[in-house]
Amino acid sequence: MWRIPYVFVLAALIMIPGFVFAREDLPNAAQARIDSLQRLIDQSQLPDSKKMEVLLDMAWAIRSSNPTLALDYARQGLAIAEDHEYPDYVIRALVDIGLLYWRMGNFNMAYDFFLEARQLAEREGDLYQYARVLSAMGIIFSGQGHYDNALEHNLRALSIYEEIDSVAATGSVLNNIGLVYQRQGNMEMAETYHRRSLQVKEHFGDEQGRAFSLNNLGAISQHRGDYQQALIYYNESLAIREEFQETREVANTLRNIGYLHYKKGEYDRAIDQLNEALSLLESVEDDRGVGRVYYHLGEVHMGIGNLIRAQRYFTRSLQIAEEIGLPSLVSDNLEGLGQLMAMQGEYQQAYDYQGRYMALQDSIYDEESRRRVIELQLMYDRERKEREIELLRISNQVSALSLEKQRLLRNFLLVVVLLILVLLFVIYNRFLVTSRANRLLKRQKEEISVSNKKLQELNRRLLEQKQKVEELYMKLKESEKNLIEINKTKDKFFSIISHDLRNPFASIVSFSRILKRDIDQLSKDELQQLTLELDKSVLKINSLLENLLQWSRAQTGKISYQPGYFEIKDIIRDNINLFSAGLQEKGIEITDKVKDHLIVWGDVNMTNTIIRNLLSNALKYTKPGGYIELRSEKKNDMVEVEVADNGIGISASDQKKLFRVDTLHTTYGTRDEKGSGLGLLLCKEFVEKQGGQICLKSHKGQGSVFSFTIPLSETSS
What we know:
This protein is mainly alpha-helical.
């Protein structure tokens, strides 16, 4: 039977490109964590169960800095888990070892460990660990270019996580899927999954994970040519990584930003960013990153015509790429040097570099083809092995079922024989009982005759009692009816009492807090005015009660605020489509001037309700042949959205009645459409819940302009 493992601390153990496994709450606690784990490992008296967990934690903590040592720790943890038969930790160790081999480029070993982990998870019925293995195998398939298999494994893992309600673990799988689509060139689907992954990481406070998601979204925006949005994503990712002191990741983000400035033609800024990235990468001895930055610096200097420095950077990058064995970077530098020599008029050298570039490309292609053939063969061998194992398992099951069938048949025959013997005994016993019963029957008839006479007398008495019971029942029914009426009256009374107490106390508490907070700053006139306002709140209780009850009945439950980034243009477009039939029916022209790609921070459902209600009111109170216009404008760190119409307008006196609980203003539209006033009240509540404000500008007969604000980012909300 499938079960959820008891250790949910493992929820984010699967590492994928672009996802960070956050084990510590503070950025500077990583080394302290490693030191603490090392001290525990060095303790000779540490119990095996604890040592196993510490070894696996240490392996994961140093997976990037020292993968060889991490592999040794993981294998020690696996040995203890197998000796003590801890299946959860065995699966965890197998997956960790597979991921370490994957990081070291050993596809064959990684796949073997993942396959063993999957078989064990299936046998144990461990849904969580099974999904974890599927996601890890998806990483392998994606890295090898088997995108269909990668998507299949990751989507199955996502489905399982959602089935067991393990929301925290879905963030990594969503990011996996997004990267697969990104490598396929499907940027629209990639962005969808990266945004979903970002929402999960934001919900669970995974800031390092957010940095990777933002970096991925920046790459997508850069691919689309939206450099401004890409820079926004990169800068936000950079701020997080600087806060967590991730030197290598900070350098990589700076390299991305520098290359983005180069693509925009901002060469000076590109050089500054790339030089800063170069310094950081050299401090952590990342030769791969250093070589790539040198190549980008060569591109930038060639772009500004500084050919001597460009040649020096290309040459240095080429030297590093050849030393550490990066054929793709060698190819890029040969191509760059060829172009550079041609620009300098050194055509022979340009020809030589171009020839080396073409030869290397052919070599890379041949090597890649051979590697792909080997990998496909390995994949085929493993799939065949899996099929053979499955066939053997099915054969064993068939044999077991055959034995079980024979056992059941033997037991069935034994049961049938026993049932026949029991039946014969029952028949004989019934014969004896029947004979005895016949002898008693005659005597019983005589007794029955006497009993009938007694029963007739008893029936007469029962009828009399029945009449008395019916009379008593009628009295009870009447009493019950009276009790129901009393209960209704009591419930109504309690309802009135509860609402009469709740609302005035809310107002009194509000004013008392103002008095408590600002009493030393308030003048005598202000105190008198505050007292008058308190008095007004008390006098309005009766009128507030009915409207508040109507409003509370309209609520379907507790409304939770779930913010996130989204494009407000999409919501406006959907609502225009929603009211298209009504707009056409009244011949109303609607104009959408809201800016494209305007990303805001808020609750999608609440914002959708706001726009839908404002559009509904504009349609309701605009005469046939009129117009409705939607506009947007950035104001500081907010976005103001306006819904304007040339409808019947609202008088100054009626405007004062809007957005208030105590006076739900009700009017009729241009075609006698009945309004309730509750829509605007809900708009106001949702706008303010998102940190904005809602306003109205209107003159009777000249139309209305409803506007509301919504934050541009989480920090401005």
